[in-house]
Amino acid sequence: MLERIPGIDRSEALRYLRIRLGAVPPELEGAFSRCEAELTETARPRTVWRLFDREADGRLAGTRFLPAGESIRRHLSGCEQVVLMAATLGSEAESLLRRAQSRSMGDALILDALGSAAIEAVCDQLCAEIAQELSPRRLTARFSPGYGDLPLDQQRELFAVLDVTRRIGVSLSESALMLPQKSVTALIGVRAPQSSYTTGREQP
Amino acid sequence: MNPSDILLLDGGMGTMLQAAGLPLGELPEVWNLTHPEAVTAVHRRYTEAGSRVLYTNTFGANRFKAARCGHPVSELIAAGVRCARQAAGPGTKIALDIGPLGQLLEPLGSLRFEEACDCFREMLLAGEAAGADLVIFETMSDLYEIKAAVLAAKENTRLPVWATMTFEKTGRTFVGVTVPAMALTLEGLGVDAMGFNCSLGPGELLPLVDELQRWTSLPLILKPNAGLPDPVTGEFKIGPEDFAAAMLPALRRGVRILGGCCGTTPDFIAALNRTLSDNSSAARPARTRSGVCSASRVAPFGGVRVIGERINPTGKKRFQQALREGDIDYIVQRAIEQQDAGADILDINVGLPGIDEPGMMTKTVKAVQAVVDLPLQIDSSDPLAIEAGLRAVNGRAIVNSVNGSDEVLDAVLPLCKKYGAAVVGLCLDGNGIPQTWQERVNIARHILDKALQYGLKKQDVLIDCLTLTVSAQQEQARETLRAVRCVSEELGLHTVLGVSNISFGLPARENVTVNFLIQAMGAGLDFPIVNPNQRAIMDAVASFRALSGEDRDCEGYIRRFAGAASAPAPAAEPGEMTLAEAIWRGLRHETAVLTGRALETRSELEVVNELLIPALDRVGDGYEKQTLFLPQLINAANAACEGFEIIKRRISERGAESVSKGKIVLATVRGDIHDIGKNIVRVVLENYGYTVIDLGRDVPPETVVEAAVREDAKLVGLSALMTTTVSSMAETVQALRRSGHACKIMVGGAVLTPEYARQIGADYYARDAKQGADIAKQVLG
Lengths: 204, 781
Prior knowledge:
The complex is a heterodimer of chains A (204) and B (781).
Chain A: H1 10-16, H2 26-42, E1 46-53, H3 70-75, E2 81-88, H4 90-103, H5 105-134, E3 138-143, H6 155-162, H7 164-168, E4 171-172, E5 178-179, E6 183-191
Antiparallel strand pairs in A: 1-2, 2-6, 3-6, 4-5
Helix pairs in contact in A: 1-5, 2-5, 4-5
Chain B: E1 7-8, H1 14-19, H2 31-34, H3 36-49, E2 53-55, H4 63-69, H5 73-87, E3 93-98, H6 113-129, E4 134-140, H7 143-156, E5 161-165, H8 179-189, E6 193-197, H9 202-215, E7 220-223, H10 240-252, E8 257-258, H11 266-278, E9 291-293, E10 298-300, E11 307-311, H12 317-324, H13 328-341, E12 345-348, H14 357-371, E13 376-379, H15 383-392, E14 398-403, H16 406-419, E15 422-426, H17 437-453, E16 461-464, H18 476-489, E17 494-498, H19 509-523, E18 527-530, H20 535-548, H21 555-561, H22 579-584, H23 588-598, H24 604-624, H25 630-654, E19 663-668, H26 676-687, E20 691-694, H27 701-710, E21 715-719, H28 723-739, E22 744-748, H29 754-759, E23 764-765, H30 769-780
Parallel strand pairs in B: 1-8, 2-3, 3-4, 4-5, 5-6, 6-7, 7-8, 11-12, 11-18, 12-13, 13-14, 14-15, 15-16, 16-17, 17-18, 19-20, 19-21, 21-22, 22-23
Antiparallel strand pairs in B: 9-10
C-alpha cells in the first residue's frame, strides 16, 4: 500500500504545462523544486482495486455492471477477468492545489501539472502491485470511463461496485466528475498467461 | 442512557443483503420496498444475536441516490424503518441510519451547506414520522457535512442524535478532520453520543478511542469493520471470535455502545454479545482538554493563543473599500498573512454601515476557511450576523462578544449554545465601562452566571477586561491588569484583551503595546487580540511561551530565532531595476516599491497606462514567443497586482472612485468543477485593470445571465474543461442571447476549438489567459 507519491516524471508535468523543452527552464527550476517538495510532502495517495470474473455477456460477475461500447469490448477481448481500480492523490493534495491558487497562481499551475503526473505515477505503481499479485496472469493497459466510447456516466456504476467513496474518499459530482480532481478510475483486463490475444495493449 | 448500560449494536447490512442476492453496486435501500422480507430477515438475525439497537437500511436513501432508483426518499425510509421495526424485540431501539450524501460539500465540492441541511432534513422528517427512536449519522468524513446533518436533526426533529465518523490510521478522515476537531464540534452541537465506524478494524481504532476520550465526556460508540476486504476474494480478514476479542480493550476503556460495520455478520454480534456479558465496562476517564477548532486544526485552551485582528474594517479605508466592492480576495489575503505570521485564531469582523452584514459574514467565513485552516472568532454586535457566521463555520468558533447587559446576553448566549461556540464577555454593561477592577470582575461574574444558565461550560467563557488608552486614562492600565489577574486566578476563567488600544495617541506605540502585552500575559491573559504581522508582538509571545513552560524545551522559540541573526534582510531594495524588469521577473516586493517610487512623479493613471500595462504587454509578447512560460506569465501578473494594489490604496485613501477599465463576468459552467484555467484568466484580467466578477465553478446559466445583467458587463467569459460540460456552455451562451443583454462572449477550455466556439454561438475563442486579455482589450478598451 502506497503512503507517498512514488516519484514524479517531470517531463510529463512539462507536457501538461505545454512547455516544449527537454527540461525545466532554469527560470522555473526553483518553483518546480519547491512545488514538487510540497506536493510530495502533502499528498497521501490512496488506492483500491478488486478482481471480478467476466460473465459471457461481458458483465462483471456478481454485479449488473456491463461496460458499454465497442472500444472497451475490444480492449477486454480474451480477458476472463477484470480488475476495477481507483486511485487518488487525496483531499490533502486537493486542498494544497486550491489553496495555492490564493497564494500564487504561478505555483498553482505548476502544482497542478505535477499533480497530474503524480497520479499517473501512483496508478503505474498500483498496476505493478496488481500484476505481481495476479502473476502469472497478464494485465492489459488501464481503460477509464470517458475513453473511446465507454460512457463517462458509467463512472457511477464503477463507483458503486468498487465502493470508491467509502474506500478511498473520492466522490462523484452530479455530472460524474471526480473530486479530488487528481483521481483516476480504470478497468484492466486480466488474461490467462497462455492467452494468444494481443488486442488491448498490455502493460510492459 | 444509564451510565452502567452497555448497548450492543448490529453488524453489516450490505454484505448480508449481497449474500441474499443483492447484486454488488445496487442501492440496498431499494430492497426495503422490493424485498422487505429479506431486509427484515437480516434485522431479525441481529436481534437474535443480541443487538439492542438496529440500524435501518437507509444509509444512502438521500435525494441524489433516490433520484436514480426511481423511488422517493420518504418511501425508501418509511419502508426501511418498517423492516427494522418488524424484527425488533422488546426494548429494541430503531436507529434511523444516515450516511454521507455522496456529494462533496463546498469548498472542495460544490454542494452548498444549506442544501446539505435540506437533504438531511428530508430524510430526518421521513424517519421520525415512520417511528425511528433515534438517528445515527455514520461513516462521515467531512466535518461540515456532519455539522449540516446534526443541525438539521436539532432544528427539525426531537430525535436523539448519535454521530460516528470514519478515520484512517493517520488519525484523520479522508478530508483531514482530526479527532479533537470532531469531538469539540459535535459535542458543541449537542449530539448525545459519538464515536467511530467503518474503515479500520477494532485494534487499529483503539488509539483513536484514547484520543477521543481526552476531548469529550459524551458516551462513545465503536462500530469497526472486520478489517479490510481482500481485493481478489472480497473476503474480510478478521473472524467473529477475533473481532470480539479485539473489541474488549475498548470496553475496558469505557466505551459502552459497540457493534460492527462492513464485513461483520450476526456471528460477529453473537460473539461480541458473549464477550460483553462476560466482562463489565470500566468507568470513563474524564475529559481533560478543551479548545476551538477548524476541521483540521485545534487551538487548545491552556496557554497563549494569539487572535489575529486584521480582518476588521475599523479605521481601515482600504478594507472598507474591499467590503463595499465585495472584494473577498482582499480579505482572504489578510487571513493568509496572519496565518503565515503565526496567528492561532482569526477574528472576523465585517461590520460596516450600509452593507448586508449577515450575508457578508457568511461569504467571508466560507472564503477564509477555504484557504486558511485556523479556528475563527465571529466578531459582531448583530445577532443575525453572529448566527450567519456560526452557521457557516466549519468547526467550533468563538463569539466576540457579549457584555454584562441582559438584553445582549439573552440574545447571543442561546446562539452560542445552539452552535456550541465559546464566547467573549466584555466587562461593561448598560452603565458603560466601570472604572475599578472590582466592578469589572463583578460584571465578569454576572456573564459567567448567565452563560452557565444557558448551558455553556465554564471553560468556554472568555472574559475581556477591556484595554483603555494609557495616554488618556493613565490609571486604567493597572486596573485592567488587576482585573485580568483576578478573573484568571479567582474566577478561573480564560481572558481576552484587545491589546493595541493601550498605546493609541502615543509615539513609538510598539514599545508600549509590547510592554503591556507582556504584563498582561504575566497577569494571566491567554487570548491576546493583536496584529500578528507586527514582529515585536509575536516575538514577545514566543518569549513568553518559553518562559511560562508552555513551549516545551523552548522548541518554538528556537525555531523562530535560530539563525535569525545571520539571515539576510528580508526586503532588499530593488536598486537600479526598472518596474518593467521587476514585473517580468515576477518580483512582488520590488514591483510594489518601484510603483511607490513612480507615484512620486506621476499620477495613478499615468503609472497604470505608461508603466504597468506596457510591462504586462511585454510579458505577454515574451509568452507568445515562448521566451517565457505560463507560470512566469502568471507570476508577472501577480507582481503587477502588487503595483495595482498600491495604486488602489492611494486612491481609496483619497476617497476617490477606483480605476477600472470595465467589468467582466467569468464562470466555469454548470457541471464542471475544474476551474484552474478560469482562475488564471481572472488573475491576468484583474492585473490588466479590469474588474472581474468571478462566479466560481459549476455555475448554472441563469446565474451567469443574472450577474451579466446586474453588473451590466459587456464581456462574459465561460470556461469548460470536459467534453461533457461543453453542452452546458452552449446552454449558457443561448441563455445570455435570449436575455437580450448586449455583451460579447468569450469561451475557453481544454476541449474547445475555435470552430466549436463559433458553433455554440460564442463571439471569441480564447486559447489561453493572454488571449483572454487581448480580447478584453478589443471589447472594453
